[in-house]
Predict the 3D structure of the following.
Amino acid sequence: MAERPYDENEERKRYIWRHFPDAVRPHECIPHPDAVEAALPEHHREAFRRYYNAIGSSDSPAPLPPDLESLVTRIQADIETASLDAAVGDREFDIHRCAQCNRILQSPSAQQCLWCGHDWH
């Protein structure tokens, strides 16, 4: 069974990236730091800018505060999802789902759901 919480958007992205590489590749959806910064509330932008600018320098960046880190992670995931949706447009994908819980399976040939444990082999 999966150890991480189920997130439909994240699992859809992973499935498309893994099984439909001709549609869009993960690196094509990585958000630019300027886009992340622009999506942040104004009072968090300076801390994010300092953190991001320190990444490439010889100084190790101080970690982001936990609340800002979770916000940045959520914004990055939202931008990735929007980029993926824009890249694939109206294209339909045959995404295999579990017959019991309807969650996205790991692969088209999966015979067991890693989310609910349902087994059909």
Notes: The two ends are 16 Å apart (CA to CA). The chain is about 45% helix and 0% strand. The mean pLDDT is 91.
